[in-house]
């Protein structure tokens, strides 16, 4: 059996993402990465919490944050998490077209989230003069939330390039692990956002 | 013989599809609960409920949402997830220690 036959079996296995050694390694390796990311974001959260009281002028968390936009962003990202679950459901049933469709919906929702975030930062900078350099609170805020936004941007590039690259190949045991770990990454972005909207925005409003 | 094998594999495929469907139903329920928790958290803040407990409750709601995300959406409840669980709980322990250090011991 040639290498290609191994990667394109007649009957796809139950967990196509873990059917090959490479897939298994990717799976464990990526979870290690996520464990490390947890610590990385924790240090950014810690920094933000320590600095969020060091404000300048009227630009305090209570005055700045608007919960309407944050609510819309939360709904967009939460829904995109569900659509990427749908995509993986279709992957496990070996339905490549439906998987691509739901990944496409995920990317659109992610773009919506990113658009809201760019609008939010623009609004703070131009209407409130609240920048990275204006206070320690500003530095902590833009580092934490901006780093998360950077993750969203990277996730969008990642999923989009996988979709385009594998469009004509269809689903096989070579690319199934790639799709699977990109969806794990996307869920992790939502995990971090849950803490951001709670710790930064909601607790910031409570004071 | 080959017909029988085919029947068996078709049967396996159907069982597998049912399992996947069952997991999907669980995930949709999880999603509905996450939306509900988000609504509760936001409305608590918007309605300006002033209580000593509002902060712990908000953090608890976030914690439950994250657990849902990890165990159901990222399949950590499924078989073959021993290593990911060890790694994530290890990461979270360090994460918690980091946050406690930054907010209590370090002088800013």
TrEMBL record, chain A:
Pfam families noted in UniProt: COX3
Name the domain of life: Bacteria
Kindly indicate where the leader peptide sits in this chain.
Answer: none
Question: Do you know which Gene3D superfamilies this protein is assigned to?
Answer: Cytochrome c oxidase, subunit III, four-helix bundle (1.20.120.80)
Q: What membrane topology does this protein have?
A: Multi-pass membrane protein
Report which residue ranges the record marks as coiled coil.
none
> In which compartments does the protein localize?
Cell membrane
Q: Matching CDD domains, A to Z?
A: Ubiquinol_oxidase_III
Keyword Cell inner membrane annotated? no
Record's InterPro entries?
A: Cyt_c/ubiquinol_Oxase_su3 (IPR024791), Cyt_c_oxidase-like_su3 (IPR000298), Cyt_c_oxidase_su3-like_sf (IPR035973), Cyt_c_oxidase_su3_a-hlx (IPR013833), Ubiquinol_oxase_su3_dom (IPR033946)
Residues forming the Heme-copper oxidase subunit III family profile domain are 28-205
Keywords of the record = Cell membrane, Membrane, Transmembrane, Transmembrane helix
Membrane spanning segments where?
28-49, 69-89, 101-122, 142-164, 184-204
Record's family?
Belongs to the cytochrome c oxidase subunit 3 family.
Matching PANTHER family: CYTOCHROME C OXIDASE SUBUNIT 3 (PTHR11403:SF9), CYTOCHROME C OXIDASE SUBUNIT III (PTHR11403)
Record protein name field:
Cytochrome (Ubi)quinol oxidase subunit III
Q: Give the organism the record lists.
A: Salimicrobium humidisoli
Q: What is the lineage of its organism?
A: Bacteria, Bacillati, Bacillota, Bacilli, Bacillales
From TrEMBL, chain B:
- What is the membrane topology listed in the Swiss-Prot or TrEMBL record? Multi-pass membrane protein
- Cross-referenced InterPro entries: Cyt_c_oxidase_su4_bacillaceae, Cyt_c_oxidase_su4_prok
This protein's name: Cytochrome c oxidase subunit IVB
Superkingdom of the organism of origin: Bacteria
Where found?
Cell membrane
Q: Is Membrane given among the entry's keywords?
A: yes
| Chief location | membrane
Keyword tags? Cell membrane, Membrane, Transmembrane, Transmembrane helix
Gene symbol of the encoding locus: ctaF
TM region(s), chain numbering: 28-47, 53-74, 86-107
């Amino acid at each position: 059996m040639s290498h290609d036959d191994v990667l394109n079996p007649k009957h796809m296995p139950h967990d196509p993402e873990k059917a090959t050694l490479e897939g298994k390694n990717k799976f464990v390796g990526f979870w290690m990465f996520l464990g490390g990311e947890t610590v990385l974001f924790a240090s950014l959260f810690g920094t933000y919490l320590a600095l969020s009281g060091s404000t300048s002028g009227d630009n305090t968390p209570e005055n700045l944050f608007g919960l309407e936009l944050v609510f819309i962003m939360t709904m967009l990202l939460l829904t995109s998490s569900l659509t990427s679950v749908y995509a993986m459901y279709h992957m496990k049933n070996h339905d490549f077209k439906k998987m691509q469709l739901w990944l496409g919906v995920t990317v659109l929702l992610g773009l919506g989230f990113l658009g809201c975030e760019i609008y939010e930062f623009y609004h703070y900078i131009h209407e409130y003069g609240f920048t990275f350099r204006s206070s320690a609170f500003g530095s902590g805020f833009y580092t934490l939330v901006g780093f998360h936004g950077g993750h969203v941007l990277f996730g969008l590039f990642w999923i989009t390039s996988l979709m385009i690259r594998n469009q004509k190949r269809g689903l096989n045991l070579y690319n199934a692990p790639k799709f699977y770990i990109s969806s794990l990454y996307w869920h992790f972005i939502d995990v971090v956002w849950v803490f951001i909207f709670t710790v930064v925005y909601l607790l910031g409003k409570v004071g | 013989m080959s017909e029988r094998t085919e029947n068996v594999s078709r049967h396996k495929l159907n069982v597998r599809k049912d399992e996947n469907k069952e997991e999907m139903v669980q995930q949709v329920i999880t999603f509905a609960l996450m939306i509900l928790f988000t609504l509760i958290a936001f409305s608590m803040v918007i309605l300006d409920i002033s209580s000593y407990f509002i902060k712990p409750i908000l953090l608890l709601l976030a914690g439950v949402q994250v657990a849902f995300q990890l165990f159901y959406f990222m399949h950590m409840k499924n078989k073959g997830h021993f290593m990911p669980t060890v790694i994530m709980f290890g990461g979270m322990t360090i994460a918690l220690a980091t946050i406690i250090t930054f907010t209590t011991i370090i002088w800013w």
